[in-house]
Write a structure and sequence with these properties.
Length: 141
């Protein structure tokens, strides 16, 4: 008997078990990466919505100079800014928002697929190893 209490029977780890543990670790990393990317996509959506609101507000109160008819704002394309009308800028922002929304939906589907496989592996591994294995994420400070 150990000083900590009765000893627990040891469970041998087979090559298949090790492969499952490794697969779980890979999926866990992928899940964290996808979650990070989802956060970035949400920030992009928030920024696009804010930009659209600002352009719409400017469109209502702004008065372009005579020589700049229909020019509203500079829209960044790569490393340069292109002068565009408010209407064109709003269309571009809406189009970009739709693209980011579609990408976010794809990432959410991938995350759900990864989570489902992780849950399956977790239940299998806990069934075999019980409290001798910890697959739960550590709390972050």
């Amino acid at each position: 008997m150990s000083p900590d209490g009765p000893s627990k029977p040891s469970v041998s780890v087979t090559q298949a078990d090790q492969a499952s543990i490794n697969r779980f670790a890979l999926l866990n990393t992928r899940h964290m990466d996808i979650s990070t990317n989802l956060g970035e996509h949400q920030r992009n959506l928030d920024n696009l919505a804010e930009a659209k609101e600002m352009v719409e507000e400017y469109q209502l109160v702004g008065e372009p100079a005579e020589h700049e008819e229909n020019i509203c704002v500079g829209y960044q394309v790569g490393d340069v800014f292109v002068n565009m009308s408010c209407e064109d800028t709003i269309e571009r922002l809406e189009s970009e928002k739709q693209n980011v929304t579609n990408q976010k939906a794809e990432l959410e589907d991938k995350r759900q697929t990864v989570q489902t496989e992780m849950n399956t592996l977790k239940s299998q591994l806990y069934a075999k190893f019980g409290d001798q294995i910890n697959l739960d994420p550590e709390p972050s400070d």
